[in-house]
Structure to design on (58 residues):
């Protein structure tokens, strides 16, 4: 679960970067999908850190 959390965290960060680029290009559908990905993957990462701790307890 630890490595999966790191991968999902990186995806969340890249989704935020993509959202900023989409705002610069004024691409509405890209903004929607990037915000959705950032919320889902970022939320999963934050919830995992809150409920299992980092590093996760066994």
């Amino acid at each position: 679960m630890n490595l999966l959390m790191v991968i999902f965290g990186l995806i969340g960060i890249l989704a935020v970067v993509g959202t900023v680029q989409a705002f610069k290009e004024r691409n509405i559908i890209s903004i929607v999908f990037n915000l959705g990905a950032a919320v889902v993957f970022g939320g999963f990462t934050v919830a995992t850190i809150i409920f299992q701790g980092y590093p996760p307890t066994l």
User: Anything to note?
Assistant: The chain has one domain: 2-52. The chain has a mean pLDDT of 89. Residues 2-52 form one domain. Residues 26 and 34 are 13 Å apart (CA to CA).
